[in-house]
Amino acid sequence: MIIKTLSLDEEDKNVFVNTYILNDYPKYYQQDKRPAVVICPGGGYSTLARKEGEPVALKMNTMGYHAFVLHYSIGFTEKPSEFINEEDLPPRNLHAAWPIQLYQVQKVFQMIKDHAQEWNVDSDQIMLMGFSAGGHLSASYATFGREIMGDIYIKPVALILGYARLDMLECDYKEKLERPSGRILTKYKNLVLFGTENPTEEQRMALDPLSHIYGGMPPVFIWHMQSDQQIKSSQALNFALKLFEYHVPHEIHIFSSGVHGCALADKVCASQKDHYDESCEMWPELLRRWLKRVITENTGR
């Protein structure tokens, strides 16, 4: 396997991509060139969840896909240790203003295409996956990213969304905003996305994936938890309903249990007890089966 850390931004040393590229060796069922997936971890645009990066990349490797984990621009110059007191937070990252994150996704796509021969990648089959805030970034790229980037935009072959923020007009759970950490995260997320603590409805609409769904979108796989206390599962349902209206192929799974940030929801990557959930743990297998219908296998045989 080729594991590298490749810089994407000279001004922000924390912006890079980690590669998990499978070795090219002869196997009867191996595709001549493999599809790839770009993974965007969540973290409220203030941090990046490690368990939504490498563990997920390695899981995608087991399905036969190359994986690339994008560490995009976030609101601080280094990872905050906690979100309890604002005075204890590290300095703000002034290079993290939206929509730079969209361009960073595009850079990874272009990098993969530029190295497709070297890395044995099927450059026409690059997927995009995101969790939570990374799901918002991924959904934004797939819905209105083309409007912002124009000719340099590279369309994903599929979009995979895990407990993603898909409706920017819907308010957060009241319980989240009652907690100091919830208020602080919301404040700095808004500063990154909108440049203000209190964005207008017009500003929210401009960054709202739900409002920008269109008929030519790539197929979408969505999974969420009914018990999520950070982002309502209704956002996933409403997104799927609108995909249906626009005849966009999609599959959706709403699990009855599971907590926000559970990632693979297995015992390997669970950072706390309730991150392990036998029901949610099924989502990678459901995704694998779905991708077999969406991704064209280039076996050359």
Automatic annotation (TrEMBL):
- Domain BD-FAE-like: from-to ranges: 95-243
Q: What domain of life does the UniProt record list for this protein's source?
A: Bacteria
Could you tell me which InterPro entries the record lists for this protein? AB_hydrolase_fold, BD-FAE-like_dom, GDXG_lipolytic_enzyme
List UniProt keywords, sorted A-Z: Hydrolase
**Keyword Hydrolase attached:** yes
Quote the protein name from its UniProt record.
Alpha/beta hydrolase
Among the GO molecular function terms of this UniProt record, one is: hydrolase activity
